[in-house]
Amino acid sequence: MKLWELSVEYDGAAACIRVRITELRAALRTEEDPEARWRLTRRILALQPLLREARELALLTARYYDRSYHKDERYTL
User: Fold this and answer.
1) Taking a C-beta distance cutoff of 8 angstroms, is the pair 51, 17 a contact?
2) Which of 4, 18, 27, 33 has the smallest C-beta neighbourhood within 10 Å, fewest atoms?
3) How far apart are CA 32 and CA 34, in angstroms?
4) Greater confidence, 40 or 3?
5) Are the CB atoms for 4 and 66 separated by under 8 Å?
6) Which candidate, 40, 44, 16, places its Cα nearest to that of 30?
7) What does the alpha-carbon distance between residue 45 and residue 76 come to, in Å, rounded to a whole number?
């Protein structure tokens, strides 16, 4: 598998996570039980770093071989 092919996978994963966060936020707006609201909020907070990382890795793998692309130091050895 080539890195640009992997970037498509990361982009698809980011889209799924983004949809799930949107669904959870909609449920949070209608939920009245404080316990359930807390669980929904915690789930949203847990998914946000995953979304950020999937987006970053999609960009990194898509542009990895571009000489002009400044790579993120967090993902280099």
Assistant:
1) yes
2) 33
3) 6
4) 40
5) no
6) 40
7) 26
The answer to whether the beta carbons of residues 43 and 54 sit under 8 Å apart is: no
Alpha-carbon distance of 21 to 45, in angstroms, equals 9
Instruction: Write out pLDDT tens, residues 24-66.
Output: 999 999 999 999 999 999 999 999 999 999 999 998 888 877 7
Query: Tokens in use for 9?
Result: 């996978």
For residue 43, the one-letter residue type is R
Q: How would you label 55-73 residue by residue, b for 16+ Cβ within 10 Å and e otherwise? A: bebbbbbbeeeeeeeeeee
Residues 6+ apart with CB under 8 A from 14: 51, 54, 55, 58
